[in-house]
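in:
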């Protein structure tokens, strides 16, 4: 059965699960999307603070329904109470809760780009490692559902483990805690995850992962602007966004569009990173400013955002990345690693 069919079937069967007050769970506004993967079924029931115990039997009954219909899939039903906002119900829809922090995570730094292929994921991973090398406890959440590449960049395979209470245990790589939306995708079906399913997957990865205490969580956003960005920025307090761009892209309006959206959503732009900025010849080590120099800094000035630094276009970045050993970990003293670490230090000094 297709995953979407199974989700609808489970939802329909939740009509038989009674919630406090006598209504049924299928029509309850606090029921999340039902996420179905080849190995798991997951959904959440959000309730008003203090109502957790009252909803316990409904949660158990819902879990039993999903287990009966889900075959061998592992079923996870979480019961969450919003601390700051009581769900309000009008016209059968839940009002989105206000922005909250993720417990245990001091600050979230998102990494975005105007378009794909500019090196956003490579930058996210090496930035996270550079922050860790400054002594911070760091995690990385790969939210790029159109091309989740963080696990590959860190040499990780397989899905993260899930505890009995349905909480993910993140992978660990090079000292980073790592979770990827890719592990929840069915290969070749990424498009199906657009919209509400993707946003509830993001919420689950963010809030139902045993991150422990983190000084910083780096989130690798999808390119452009879409549902994931809106959901994240509406629900979660984010320190700000680092925008990655190539010199060519800078001349275009893609980066500008990303900055505009962030401003509209009152999300701080922490700065611009220029990737593939200049070329270092592998044989001579000579630097070539093939796109001219200083363009990114001027563009950052035009956009009125800080310029965080430039990363060269070097073969070793692509080679190490492809091999699952990011340059910052492979050659911590190399010029590439230094470029990433300089950006991390500038970021630390601009984010309290
Ligand atoms: P995005 O996340 O923006 O789609 P990726 O981080 O996946 O981009 O990078 C796209 C490709 O470019 C990858 O093959 C990556 O190894 C390569 N790449 C990224 N940054 C650099 C760089 N500074 N020098 C050389 N290759 C790079």
């Amino acid at each position: 059965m297709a995953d979407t069919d199974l989700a609808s079937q489970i939802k329909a069967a939740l009509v038989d699960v009674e919630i406090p007050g006598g209504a049924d769970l299928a029509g309850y506004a606090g029921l999340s999307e039902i996420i179905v993967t080849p190995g798991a079924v997951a959904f959440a029931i959000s309730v008003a603070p203090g109502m957790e115990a009252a909803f316990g039997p409904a949660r158990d009954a819902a879990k039993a329904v999903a287990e009966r219909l889900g075959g061998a899939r592992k079923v996870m039903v979480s019961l969450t109470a919003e601390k700051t906002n009581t769900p309000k119900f009008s016209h059968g829809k839940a009002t989105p809760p206000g922005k909250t922090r993720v417990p245990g995570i001091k600050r979230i730094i998102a990494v975005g780009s105007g378009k794909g292929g500019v090196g956003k994921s490579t930058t996210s991973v090496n930035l996270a490692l550079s922050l860790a090398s400054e002594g911070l406890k760091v995690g990385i959440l790969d939210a790029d559902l159109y091309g989740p590449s963080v696990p590959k960049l860190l040499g990780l395979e397989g899905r993260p483990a899930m505890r009995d209470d349905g909480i993910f245990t993140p992978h660990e790589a090079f000292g980073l805690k790592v979770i990827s939306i890719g592990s929840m995708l069915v290969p070749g079906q990424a498009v199906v995850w657009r919209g509400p399913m993707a946003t509830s997957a993001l919420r689950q990865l963010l809030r139902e992962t045993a991150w422990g205490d983190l000084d910083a969580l780096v989130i690798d956003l999808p390119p452009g602007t879409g549902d994931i960005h809106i959901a994240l920025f509406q629900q979660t307090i984010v320190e700000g966004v680092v925008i990655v761009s190539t010199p060519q892209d800078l001349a275009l309006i893609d980066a500008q569009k990303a900055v505009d959206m962030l401003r509209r959503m009152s999300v701080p732009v922490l700065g611009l990173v220029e990737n593939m900025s200049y070329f270092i010849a592998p044989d001579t080590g000579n630097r070539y400013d093939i796109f001219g120099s200083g363009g990114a800094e001027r563009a950052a000035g035009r956009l009125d955002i800080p310029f965080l630094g430039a990363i060269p276009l070097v073969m070793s970045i692509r080679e190490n990345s492809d091999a699952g050993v990011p340059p910052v970990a492979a050659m911590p003293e190399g010029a590439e690693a230094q470029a990433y670490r300089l950006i991390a230090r500038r970021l630390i000094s601009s984010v309290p």
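note: Confidence is low (pLDDT under 50) at residues 83-96.
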